[in-house]
Amino acid sequence: MAVLIVEDEPSIADTIRYALETERMDSIWVTTGQQALDALSEGNIALVLLDIGLPDMSGFDVCRVIRQTSSVPVVFLTSRHEEIDQVLGLELGADDYITKPFSPRVLTARIRARLRQPPEAANITSAGFSHDADGARITLDGVLLDLSRYEYRLLLLLMSHPGRIYSREQLMQQVWEEPERSFDRTVDTHIKTLRRKIRDINENSDPLRTHRGLGYSFEAGA
Q1: Where does this protein chiefly localize (predicted)?
Q2: Rounded to an integer, what is the distance from CA 73 to the centroid of its chain?
């Protein structure tokens, strides 16, 4: 998964890419709105970092098109400081609005914060699991799962995208607050604990699948 940088100024794009690389985050750089939409349609995009003043179309229009088909996090990064632009961007469905000039460290911190946020999933019901967003809790067959913070975030991310395979690195980046300080097997340990807690409620329930060499997924039919 990569951060899609939509920016027509090479010097700014280079600064962003270097900052992301320093934080061990992959990136893809495009310079036009259409290139951004094409890249997004190919998948594997974790977040879109979007300028407004693009050469072929407005970043606002790009965001509007994205929101018709995708819930991928969108963060505007622009030199427009006017309040009306910020309001418009957020009303179009952007998740954040950052103005230039910017601090690379603050930018990467805010990107990480967005990637850690569980998706909006107030009424997820899948394979006997139900998520209550207001109560931040998950039940299985009507029984509350007693989960730690990271177990909750991990299970919610996986069940929000049934069938999608997440690598260990992707899970670390999107679930843990300080992934660089965590051990390599942290994800495996949490998956093992989740499986035990799930089977304590329903011994026949096994939705967390291991894909050797690839990662983990939530299988709704399991």
Answers
A1: cytoplasm
A2: 6
